[in-house]
Design a protein that fits this description.
Mean pLDDT of chain B: 85
Shape of chain A: extended
Mean pLDDT of chain A: 82
Number of helices of chain B: 4
Distance between the termini of chain B: 50 Å
CATH class of chain B: Mainly Alpha
Largest sheet of chain B: none
Strand content of chain A: under 5%
Low-confidence stretches of chain B: none
CATH topology of chain B: Methane Monooxygenase Hydroxylase, Chain G, domain 1
Largest sheet of chain A: none
Number of strands of chain B: 0
Helix content of chain B: 55-70%
Number of strands of chain A: 0
Largest interface: A-B, 47 and 50 residues
CATH superfamily of chain B: NADH:ubiquinone/plastoquinone oxidoreductase, chain 3
Shape of chain B: flat
CATH architecture of chain B: Up-down Bundle
Order of helices and strands of chain A: HHHHHHHHH
Strand content of chain B: under 5%
Radius of gyration of chain A: 26 Å
Number of domains of chain B: 1
Number of helices of chain A: 9
Structural class of chain A: mainly alpha
Radius of gyration of chain B: 26 Å
Oligomer: heterodimer
Chain lengths: 194, 117
């Protein structure tokens, strides 16, 4: 039963991602991309990865799609300009496809991912006893995979600072009042009698 | 997986309902159009410019900062669910993670990225 759902939703993913690259209007492309994200979340649900599915809906549909919309609106490109770049970027796209496919082969060749030596609990054993996907991630991420978790924190910090450095202009134009300075003002400072 | 079947049924009904409303109005509805009817409605006017104008990069900055704090909150969910079992070390590791992100937040605040002039 699940395999038919898998075929149905992966068919939707492939067809909507073809629509992403073939549609003339860039905003329509973003909408098809959102549809692709939703379907990939459903694929994660079919694999019992509930937390990842909800994360995809919150992060990709809720935040990344908005970011894509902003990029599309900020670039200010017309339809013909999109079509022009197709042949130019085609070899680069092929290289990316080759990288992704080779990564997939690597993943399927290693059936069992190498588990760090300091891990105290057996992941496969815990998957049988623990029913909640979110709790299982919580049990391992913050203790056994401590370093990876902290690295992700630093990556987020880096992204935050990088975005501010790139997009924030230096001069502060914001006008504000200071109540302390306002109370210091005396009559002789502002009224001048000749 | 069985608890998702109501959602699937809901999705099927939503799909049928929206497509039904769409295609019934195309095929069953009566169509009579003329030039006046297709023109811009009386209180509207012809657009002056392309609707897709460029806007300031500030909006993009807000969206990026939103994504980062979104991810921070997502890291909080499994932590809260498994809180009673990961002990003091799990608590402190999350506190350090939050501390690192608070450094970024203070930087952002001091730099004035949140001010809207």
């Amino acid at each position: 039963m699940t395999i038919y759902f898998f075929y149905f939703f992966s068919f939707l993913i492939i067809s909507s991602s073809i629509l992403v690259i073939s549609s003339n209007n860039a905003v329509h492309s973003v909408l098809y991309l959102i549809f692709t994200f939703f379907n990939s979340a459903i694929l994660f649900l079919l694999m019992n990865a509930e937390f990842l599915a909800m994360t995809i809906v919150i992060v990709y549909v809720g935040a990344i799609a908005v970011l894509f919309l902003f990029v599309v609106m900020m670039l200010n490109i017309t339809e013909s300009e999109i079509k022009e770049g197709f042949l130019k970027y085609f070899p680069f796209g092929l290289i990316l496809i080759a990288i992704f496919i080779s990564e997939l082969f690597l993943v399927f060749n290693f059936q069992n991912f190498p588990i760090p030596e300091n891990v105290k609990i057996n992941v496969n054993e815990a998957m049988l006893t623990e029913s909640s996907n979110t709790k299982l991630i919580g049990l391992f991420l913050y203790t056994d995979y401590f370093i990876i978790f902290q690295i992700s924190g630093f990556i987020l910090l880096l992204a935050m600072i990088g975005a501010i450095v790139l997009a924030q202009s230096d001069e502060r134009k914001l006008k504000s009042t200071s109540s302390i300075n306002q109370k210091k003002v005396r009559k002789k400072d502002i009224i001048k009698l000749n | 997986m069985n608890e998702y079947i109501p959602i699937l049924i809901f999705l099927i009904f939503a799909f049928l309902l929206s497509f039904g409303a769409f295609f019934f109005s195309i095929f069953v509805g009566k169509k009579s159009s003329y030039a006046e009817k297709n023109s811009t409605y009386e209180c509207g006017f012809e657009p002056f410019d392309d609707s897709r104008g460029r806007f300031e990069v500030k909006f993009y900055l807000v969206a990026i900062l939103f994504i980062i704090f979104d991810l921070e909150i997502i890291f909080l969910f499994p932590w809260a669910v498994a809180f009673s079992e990961i002990g003091l070390f799990g608590f402190l590791s999350m506190m350090f993670f939050l501390f690192v992100l608070t450094i970024g937040f203070v930087y952002e605040w001091m730099k004035g990225a949140l001010d809207w002039s």
